[in-house]
Amino acid sequence: MTPFIDYKVFQNLSYGLYILTSAEGEKKNGQIINTAVQVTSDPPRVSVIVNKANLTHDIILRSNIFGLSVLDAETPMTFIGLFGFRSGRDIDKLAKANFKTGFTGCPLVLDHALSVLEAELIDHVSLGTHSIFIGTVVNTEVLREGSPLTYQYYHEVLRGKSPPAAPTFDPTERPQSSRST
Ligand SMILES: Cc1cc2nc3c(=O)[nH]c(=O)nc-3n(C[C@H](O)[C@H](O)[C@H](O)COP(=O)(O)O)c2cc1C
């Protein structure tokens, strides 16, 4: 048997969608991720996977803190486009969103968020194009009840795409002509 990588297999893996934030002094930023996972319960730890070219990657490495907002199923595509297809290197994304400053000093995006958490970085591993950041959760808040936005809903109902910077980008998918990332 000849080994074969069919990217359709990866589409069967399930995820949510989140805003990952960080801040270093006055520099604050956030981006969409689908790669947040709780990795331990005691102590509570989460991991996130971030493209090395993203501004958020640089800020997490320097500040050692990150925040997550769990997006709800009603999140509009315009909001996902702002945080998922634009870079903080070009625009101030958080100037266009409501957020509060958490216990660690990390901005926590409140728009379309069901809950928020913030974490202190304990380790990171290079994956080549991306890094996996692992953090201990030091503060959490449930903002309201609702259904979280899933990656499947984003693709199948909202007809959303994932840019090449996303770890789950499918290189066999036809590129979207209207989007540059
Ligand atoms: C649905 C979706 C999922 C994404 N998942 C990730 C992810 O898990 N990790 C990542 O590094 N980028 C992911 N991205 C891409 C980033 O959100 C995007 O590259 C963003 O513009 C980076 O912003 P920054 O340069 O301001 O940090 C995703 C984008 C979308 C639309």
Q: What overall form do the CA principal axes indicate?
A: globular
> Would you count the extended β strands for me?
9
Q: How many H/I helical runs?
A: 3
Topology order in helix (H) and strand (E) letters = EEEEHEHEEEEH
Mean pLDDT: 94
Order of neighbouring strands in the sheet with most strands:
2-1-5-8-9-4-3
Structural class: mainly beta
Termini separation comes to 37 Å
CATH class: Mainly Beta
Kindly report the name of the CATH homologous superfamily: Electron Transport, Fmn-binding Protein, Chain A
Task: Give unreliable regions as ranges.
Answer: 176-181
Largest sheet: 7 strands, antiparallel
CATH architecture: Roll
> What molecules are bound to this protein?
flavin mononucleotide
Q: How many structural domains?
A: 1
Strand content: 35-45%
CATH topology: Pnp Oxidase, Chain A
Helix content: 10-25%
Provide the gyration radius in Å.
Answer: 16 Å
Summarize the structure.
By secondary structure, the protein is mainly beta. The chain contains three helices and nine strands; from the N terminus they run ββββαβαββββα.
Protein model, in words:
The chain has 181 residues and is mainly beta. The chain has helices at residues 55-63, 77-85, 151-156, and strands at 18-24, 27-33, 37-41, 44-51, 65-71, 99-101, 107-109, 113-126, 130-142. It has a single domain, classed as Pnp Oxidase, Chain A (Roll), CATH 2.30.110. Strands 2-1-5-8-9-4-3 form a 7-stranded antiparallel beta sheet. Strands 6-7 form a two-stranded antiparallel ribbon. Strand 3 and strand 4 (44-51) form a beta hairpin. Residues 176-181 have low confidence and may be disordered. Residues 17, 29, 31-35, 49-51, 54-56, 80, 84-89, 154, 160, 162-163, 165-167, 181 line the site of flavin mononucleotide.
